[in-house]
Amino acid sequence: MAPLTTETLIMATTFANLYTHRKVAETAAKACDICYKSSTSVLITPDKKDFFFVCPVHLKDRYFCTPKIDEEAAKKKREKELEEEKERVKKEYEEKQKKKKEKEAKKDKDEKDKDDAKEKDKDKDEKKDEDKDKEDDSPTPEEEPRVFELKTTFYQQRLLKKRQAEAAKQDRERASKPGYFPHDKMNLIDLAAESLIEYDLLPRPLTPLEEQQALVCERSKHLSFSSTCDACDVPLSRGDKVVFVYTKEWPMGPWSICWSSYRVEGYNRRGSITQFDGLCFCNGPRSSFLGCAVLHSRCFNLVLGRNPSQEMINRLGTDLLWRKPSNLWFVKNCYPRIHFPEPDGFHHLAVSIAARRAGIPLLGQLPPELVVSIQSLCPNKPFWELVRVYTLKLRLLTLPDGEQVEDYLGTLVSWKRGDVTPLCSTSLSNTEHLRITIDSDGIYKIKRLSEHVHPPKLLKRRLKRYIIADVDQVKSIRAYFKDGLCWLLHPTFHPGFTIWDTSAPPQVLELSSTAKNGRYPKIVGFEECSMVPDSIPRTLSIETIDITARCITGISFRLSPSLQWKKFDVFVHDKGSKPTSCTKSGKFVFMPLPTDDEILWLQLRSSKHASSLMVKTKLSGVIHIGSQATEDFRVKAFSRRPQRMLCNNGLGEAGFHQPLAFYPKGDSKDPRALSMITGPQLRHIPPSSQLLWSWAPLEHIDNVTVYEENNGNFQGMRIVYKNGGERFVGINQHMVPPTGSAYSYCKEPTHLSVEITAPMTTGGWLGDGPIYTMVSFAPADHWPLLSSEYTQYPLEGELHCWVRPLERAEIRVLPSGTWRRSDVLD
């Protein structure tokens, strides 16, 4: 078969733009080509080269198709209707004249009365006849047109689709012929390599110019810069015209500019590298020095113009890099990386200027609250990029003028962003501290404190972060001040700071110097806090979380079976957030906290292999979370009426935290701080198995929700009591048990049924096959389980649940008060 050329393909796939409307059977209905709904209407060309299904409603859309009507037939139809209308009017006129003459001929009064009565009846009959005639004479519905002409856009789409189908058919026929693929293996390899190079999936050989640039790159100094424009915050694309604002004498300057094109990292990609003034702007792995910002050339021209002065270039470089909190060395050292939220909205003057430039001046006259609402609905629109550029321009114009100032941080008394020079004095004493405030624009404020704030006031701030440093931490740090901004230079061998989200954090009580000859100490205690781990690194970002019922609805504990339940993360659910799933592995135990409830005390116990929490609330009583205690368990932390939980952001996953301490610290002489309640033990399970144990009273239950796996195996249950308290027993695959998963709900149950089945196996807890535990609550008149192997319990005493990794749950109903004992059960 001859190859299909372009002209041949066009000739073969051309058909007239005339489609006839036909109907098919209901069983042959297919999806509409426009809206994908099932339809029995088909449009087909006269030569049957093209057809497609379409809904009848689309045929009335004048933007989709135009009906083709026979003008001569339509004219004859109109003439016929006109003649019929004339005959009907003539007949009505003759009948009215006849009735009028009959009325005039009757003059007798009595007869006239009778005639009037009859006339009324006749009028009624006449009206009925007229209505009947109108119904008979009502026009019959017009026949819908059957021939249509598609609009140009849709007709071209049909042609293109037909041509693509024909081309694909020809390709399949050619590929099926012998000899279509080359037989030489080397040709295949070369062809594949050329294709990968063409699509930039493999580095192609370097040109002589690129080899020379690679040698220069090895000898040059590399400055790191962002992959987004530092003015409009838009990601840079390959080939964008950009301006590098850089300095060789970081951090004070002077600053220079270099016009170039943005390119991908590394010198082995296509395109030349910007190498200028002994610097290489390849942004490769060797780019680790600060001192470079990058802007779109259009943004640069909008901010400074085409011929800016050296003073404005210096201001621009200082402003762009000193205002980035991610460039601060003590922020980089913190793990996980801190996110500094930006304030809502922009400066009203920047919005007004950008609105006039964009041709929407009324937007600049709206109240700031309304502008913030508009921005939240469309945050990524180009208009806000323009607003960011004008915000930068206004900021540069309002920077204060002043000389560069340099001094040791320990001599500062106070400074605030916008101050030309700081207020300095003698160095810090041993009792004084320095509070450094940071926000999304870098260092905001520095203030000397005569003493550490006592007691701590753990009020979380959303937009700011704080550092409380003593004399030993700041004595070697130099501070630079320029244009109303501040920069702290990184000293040698400085461990960094602890960064808080509250301005009055607890004081660090003890430090352990064990790493690198005492250079990097660790924190082992906070003032009035009960510590969870033995020690924590000093370079941490600590978050303060309110765990009172007025702020949260519950806490999800994520336990890791790979660590034998030793460590756990928490997710605190506030009033407006209740996520139901998580991508990370682990098991979740959810502790609900109703609005009227309150945590009375909290006890953390742990051993070398596992850990657990014992919590008492006002409405729900004592709750156990985590591994069942063994002989080597010890109480590590105790807090009475805990208000705050100090955490760091766990594994860096959004929303999850690792608890570090609880505030306030409980009394060590409190008997609850020393008691070690283990709970009832299972005889056939060794204590080293690290069972997850939970329990709940069975009396006074208002409703129960039981969650199961897809095979019906019990996972956990959420119990709501009549006094408003809530408990969760068992484990779950989700942070909050989702209502869309397999579950059963029972209101005011009267008994509990537990069914155990072992399909395809005879094993027990340690058997050779799966064993499923099924749990159901039901009222007195309902029998939930159909299997003959079940146990039914009245709602008295306590329900205990033990869970081990990859095994079924063990359910027992025991007498009240068993949770306090350590009995070994059969």
From TrEMBL:
Pfam families: Vfa1
GO biological process: vacuolar transport
One cellular component term from this protein's GO annotations in UniProt: endosome
Biased composition (Basic and acidic residues): 163-181
Source organism, top-level taxon: Eukaryota
Region (Disordered): 79-148, 161-181
InterPro entries in alphabetical order: Vfa1
Name under which the protein is recorded: Uncharacterized protein
Organism name: Fusarium avenaceum
